[in-house]
Amino acid sequence: MNLKKMLILIGVLIIVSAVLAACGGGAATTEPVTEGTEAPVAAAPQPEMPYLAEWQGSGHADVASEPFRHWDAEDPAEVPTSCAKCHSADGYQDFLGVDGSEAGKVDAAVAAADAQGVTCVACHNAGTISKTTVKFPSGIEITAGDDVRCMECHQGRESKVSVDAQIERFAITDDDAVVAPIKDDQGNDVRFGFRNVHYYAAAATLYGGQVQGGYQYEGLVYDSKNDHVEGYDSCTGCHNPHTLEIKVEQCALCHEDVSTVEDLKNVRMVSSVKDYDGDGDVTEGMFYEIEGLQAALYAEIQKYASSKAGVGIVYDSAAYPYWFADADGDGAADQADGRAVGYTTWTARLLKAAYNYQVSLKDPGAFAHGNKYIVQLLHDSIADLGGDVNNMARDDAGHFAGNTEAFRHWDFDDEGNPVYEVEAACSKCHSASGLPQFLEHGANLPNEASNGFACSTCHNEAAWPERYAVASVTFPSGTAVSFGGKDADGNFVADEGNMCILCHQGRSSTPTVNKALAGKDLDTPDAKIRFSNIHYFAAGATIFGADVQGAYMYEGKEYVGQNMHASDDGKMNKCQDCHDVHALEPKVETCQTCHDTTDPTAIRESDVDYDGDGDVTEGIKGEIDTLTEALYARMQVYSEGAGGVISYDAYAYPYFFNAEGKGYAAWTPRLLKAAFNYQYVLKDPGAYTHNPKFVIQFLIDSIADLGGDVSAYTRP
Known about the structure:
4 domains, elongated, about 725 residues, 16 strands, mainly alpha, disordered N terminus, two-stranded antiparallel ribbon
């Protein structure tokens, strides 16, 4: 045992001793006083119990409340093993095994009279000192710090896994069919019923898709753990562990106009630029976005229950089993024998949506714990019931979309084991901490997988809120450039746009392609040739054109360099000039300053017919699209003679395939160069604005190099 844990254990023993003393745990043993002797020496004062006053005002100490008195009238009056872990200190210690029993389960019920809240020894004991993991109802195990003792209870009691297990048990093949009862092993009827996540499942909300506390629909990806900011992404980071109160004064350090817990409902990060509930308000706090989605989902649940399940439904959060029949449609629960009638006309689809609705309600702090995960659950439930989600947003802007492949790719290894670590070669651009780490050390190192970027990815925490100053960026070709240019002494000048192109530069270039193809015959298939992938959104390489050689540039041809758009006034030349730095969307309204449109795809600045189709009114994007299609057609003609017709799939690695659907392996150097440029255009969807003349040049050259007729084209 290390020194820290030894000191903690000693402290625990002192606390336990104090508890025993305070409760009369030991009797005084002074000698009888005889006449004429000196007055007895006063007993030494007992040590004061730390944090006692704070704990006494908390929910954990409210022994008269329902969580601890629920079983008083039961027969027998005891907290059952299924509940004792979280509703009694004895049960929690039993679960930990500190009472000598097997760890990981509660062996014995606890007398209701002994359910005296969550006391000091529940969390401060030899078992919690070494506890580092917690298993969620989904079966997924999380490794964390001291907060695992909180998460053992605040994790809920159901998950996607248990909901699916019930659906499988009833052998449901039609999600819209009302499910009939089945027989158990004793021949008794078993009904298909509602699954209750239980109260305050904050940890399930916090860890989101990682632990599957909500019902996650097949084929959709969900946000992972809500990282928030370092130091405020855990239970005890945001809550006082004894009073349980939120550290509102800490929230106010970053969030304006926050002085009370109620004010937190108005918090909305700058990354939350979408209208999630579709009400047109993108300034309201995330609490209200979720509230809007809850109302929309409840309406869809009621609509579906009446029209599909055949019986209306109403919800009551304060009455078990929460969902009640409303056959007459009056908005109130039907009554029978003086009691509300529980809902029984469940379909699998209705269960999933109702489960997610309650998940969002049973964690009153969900808007802070994991708001985007809850948004996704509600959005998907509405859509699955047939609701209109056209005006609702599910996913964040790319940098903050923690549910996308760009951030979730590294969650598991090839065998499905959890990893949640981004490898060194990818971490700079695919983790929240990778870019700051690269700027500090000048090297790529593995980083923990994140739920999208954080504020601290681009803003220097040491000089908040300044953004990192980047003087220059070296591209895969080995060339260094800067949006700031150079000063009189030839030194690069830092510019905020440089931070963007640290990632948006691609991962290959003319020199890397040439190196891989050195010494090979241009038209001879070679099994050793592998496709070179430029990677996604290489906008920086497009903007700087020939200066950084991101696309394949053919020997003997001239290419334009950096695109100096609107160079007369020096504006609209950089990433931040044309894109909102948080929403990432183009500032299309600024286009209208010079162009008669806010649609960038309709803009052209020349009457030259580059693609030879006779249309000189279409946007420059139309010219590039035609040339891109012509290049693909030429690649297929060429490949037929080289080793089989090639096909392309932008969503499947390795992107290029043969007629049998296998990865293309009959590469010639000439075909590889053209394919590299073809994918380059597709992987930068804004290439037509970033540097259109450069793109047209290498497309025409690629077609020509494959033997295509380019006589109708005009090369800039």
